[in-house]
Design a protein that fits this description.
By secondary structure, the chain is of the alpha+beta class. It has helices at 2-12, 17-24, 28-39, 45-50, 53-60, 71-89, 95-105, 112-126, 185-199, 227-235, 252-269, 277-293, 303-311, 398-407, 411-421, 423-433, 443-456, 458-468, 476-484, and strands spanning 139-144, 149-152, 159-162, 164-168, 175-179, 205-208, 215-217, 224-225, 240-242, 327-332, 338-341, 346-349, 358-363, 367-372, 375-381, 389-390. The protein starts with a helix and ends in a 30-residue tail after the last helix.
C-alpha cells in the first residue's frame, strides 16, 4: 500500500505517468491501471489518501465475483473424510483404489492425477503441523530405530542384528544412540542408565512410544507402565509418558534424530566389517560424538555446546548409583536347605531351619537375595553354573558343617592339628599317613585318632602316642587299645622299650601256603 499511496501523491501533484514511473520504478501500464481503477470510484486523490490501508485496498483490489462451484469438487469433499479414514485404518489401501471407488460413484469426476492433487491438498489442511516450544531439561524422547545395525560372528560367519536405541533432547537436539544385544528390558534399562549418564543428569520426564518393554496397556489418557520401568523412573526421580498409538508426530525430535542417525552413523558404517557388539558400540560412540560436536548450521553452535551452556544446568542430579534391574521369582526351600533359581537352574542355600518354607527370590545380574515374609534370610553372589550349588557354611546343621570341614582336609591339616596336641601325636600322625600308598586311605584313621582326644583328653592321647611310638607298627586300633586299657598311664623309663615277642618256631613260613 506504500507504493499505491506514493502513486496517488504524485498524481495529485500533477505528475505524468512517465514521471511517476521514473520515481517509483513501477511499470507504466500498472500505474495507469491503478489510476483508472481509483478514479472510477468517484473519489478525489486527496480523499483516497485519507482512507485507511484496508479501505483503500478494497478500491485497489475489488472482490471478484464468486465462481460457480465445481460439482466435481463438491462431490469429492463429501467423501474425502471417509477416504482419509480408509487410507489410515485399512491395511493395504491405496489412493488408486480410493480413486476407483470414487469414480464408480461419480463417473464424471476427476482424473487420477487431479484426485491425488485434491486429496493431498485436503490432507495438508486437515493435518497442520504445530510448532512446539520446549523448556531446557524438561523432556527426553526415546525410541527404537526402524532399521537394525549388525556385526559378524567370527566363529560362524552369521550376521547378528542389533536393535538401536535413539534418544534426543528436544531443546538442544543433543542425541544419544546405542546398539543393543536385544530389545529385552534388561538391555534397554542398562542402555537408559548409560544414556542419562551421557547427559550427566535427568530430565523432568521421559517420552516414549508404546514399546512393550515400558507400556503394558496403551491409552491416550492413562497408559499403564511396567513395574520395572516405574522402578527405574523412581530411582532417577523422573517419570514416563507415552505417546498416542500410531502418532509419531507426538515425538518429532527423536523421529528426526533417527533420520539423522541413518545419515551420520549408519551410512558411515556401511560395508564396514565389525566382529563384536563391543566393537560396534565403540564405533557408534565415536560417530555420535562427532555428530553432537558438529556445528548445526553456519555460525551456530553444535548440539553439545548448546546443551552444555543452556540445558545441562536444568537437569536433575543423577543418583549415587545406577539403577540395577532386579527380577522376582518364587521358590520352596528343599530338604537339602537350598532354593532353585529357575532361570539359571542353580541352587542357593538358606538356613536349614527354613526347610519347607516358601520364599521370594529377588535377583539381578550380580546378586541373589532370598526373602521370607519380607525378611531377608540369605544373600549370595549370583552363579550362572547350571545344576550347581552355592552353599554357605553358616546355613548348615552342625553335623553337616563338621562333615564339610573334614571333606576339605589334607595330610598337612591332620599333622597341624596333631602338632597342637603334642610332638608324639604329630609323629604318630606322620607314620599313619605314610602307611598307605594312597594317603587319602588313611584320613579316616587320622580323624579317629584326633577324636580320641575328645574322649580321653589331649594329655592322655599324647601319652598313648608316646607309648605306641616304640612299636614297629602303628594304627588307630593300637592307640585306642592303649587308652582303653589305661596303658598310657604306665610310665616308661627313658631306656625302656616295649617288650617284643622272642624268636620261636610258631611262625608260618612259605611252605605253609603251598
Amino acid at each position: 500500500m506504500l507504493q499505491i499511496r506514493k502513486i496517488l501523491q504524485l498524481a495529485a501533484a500533477g505528475e505524468s505517468v512517465r514521471e511517476i514511473n521514473r520515481i517509483t520504478k513501477v511499470h507504466r501500464n500498472t500505474i495507469h491501471e491503478y489510476l483508472v481503477q481509483l478514479r472510477s470510484t468517484g473519489n478525489s486523490y486527496q480523499d483516497l489518501l485519507n482512507l485507511k490501508d484496508a479501505e483503500l485496498a478494497e478500491y485497489v483490489y475489488p472482490k471478484k465475483e464468486e465462481e460457480a462451484p465445481d460439482e466435481r469438487l463438491k462431490d469429492f469433499l463429501q467423501e474425502v473424510s471417509k477416504y482419509k479414514s480408509d487410507l489410515i485404518n485399512c491395511k493395504g489401501m491405496t489412493r488408486k483404489r480410493l480413486w476407483g471407488k470414487h469414480l464408480a460413484k461419480y463417473p464424471d469426476s476427476y482424473s487420477y492425477s487431479q484426485f491425488c492433487e485434491h486429496f493431498a491438498r485436503y490432507l495438508n489442511k486437515s493435518d497442520p503441523t504445530m510448532v512446539m516450544s520446549h523448556r531446557p531439561g524438561d523432556v527426553f524422547q526415546i525410541d527404537f530405530a526402524g532399521t537394525d545395525l549388525s556385526y559378524i560372528d567370527r566363529s560362524t560367519g552369521e550376521i547378528i542384528p542389533c536393535p538401536v536405541l535413539v534418544c534426543s533432547l528436544p531443546y538442544s537436539s543433543l542425541a544419544y544412540i546405542e546398539p543393543l544385544a536385544s530389545t529385552q528390558l534388561e538391555h534397554l534399562v542398562a542402555s537408559l542408565n548409560r544414556a542419562v549418564n551421557y547427559l550427566g543428569g535427568v530430565t523432568n520426564w521421559i517420552l516414549t512410544d508404546n514399546m512393550r518393554q515400558i507400556v503394558t496397556r496403551p491409552c491416550r489418557y492413562e497408559p499403564t507402565f511396567t513395574e520395572l520401568s516405574e522402578q527405574w523412573a523412581v530411582h532417577y526421580n523422573t517419570f514416563f509418558k507415552a505417546t498416542r498409538v500410531g502418532k509419531p508426530k507426538d515425538k518429532p525430535t527423536v523421529e528426526k534424530t533417527v533420520d539423522l542417525g541413518y545419515q551420520n552413523i549408519y551410512a558411515a558404517l556401511y560395508e564396514k566389517e565389525i566382529y563384536s557388539l563391543e566393537e560396534l558400540c565403540s564405533r557408534v560412540a565415536i560417530l555420535l560424538d562427532e555428530f553432537n560436536n558438529r556445528p548445526m548450521y553456519k555460525n551456530l553452535p553444535s548440539r553439545m555446546e548448546r546443551f552444555q551452556k543452556e540445558e545441562k544446568p536444568f537437569l536433575k542430579e543423577l543418583p549415587y548409583e545406577p539403577f540395577v534391574l532386579k527380577h522376582r521369582a518364587k521358590a520352596k526351600v528343599k530338604k537339602n536347605y537350598h532354593v532353585i533359581l529357575g532361570e539359571d537352574w542353580h541352587q542357593y542355600s538358606v538356613p536349614y531351619q527354613y526347610i519347607g518354607k516358601k520364599t521370594i527370590l529377588i535377583y539381578d545380574e550380580k546378586e541373589v537375595e532370598v526373602y521370607l515374609d519380607l525378611r531377608r534370610i540369605a544373600v549370595h553372589k549370583r552363579n550362572y553354573r547350571k545344576n550347581g550349588y552355592t552353599t554357605l557354611p553358616e546355613h548348615m546343621p552342625e553335623s553337616h558343617k563338621k562333615y564339610n570341614e573334614q571333606r576339605g582336609w589334607t595330610g598337612d591339616d591332620f599333622i597341624e592339628k596333631a602338632g597342637k596336641i603334642g610332638d608324639y601325636t604329630e609323629k604318630i600322625m606322620e607314620r599313619i599317613l605314610s602307611s598307605r600308598t594312597f594317603m587319602e586311605q588313611t584320613y579316616d584313621a587320622c580323624l579317629g585318632v584326633l577324636r580320641l582326644a575328645n574322649k580321653y583328653g589331649s594329655n592322655r592321647l599324647e601319652a598313648a602316642c608316646k607309648r605306641a611310638s616304640q612299636g614297629p607298627r602303628i594304627n588307630y586300633t593300637i592307640i585306642k587299645n592303649i587308652l582303653k586299657n589305661n596303658q598310657d598311664k604306665v610310665l616308661l623309663s627313658e631306656n625302656q622299650v616295649l617288650p617284643f615277642l622272642p624268636p620261636h618256631d610258631n611262625i608260618r613260613g612259605p611252605e605253609s601256603y603251598q
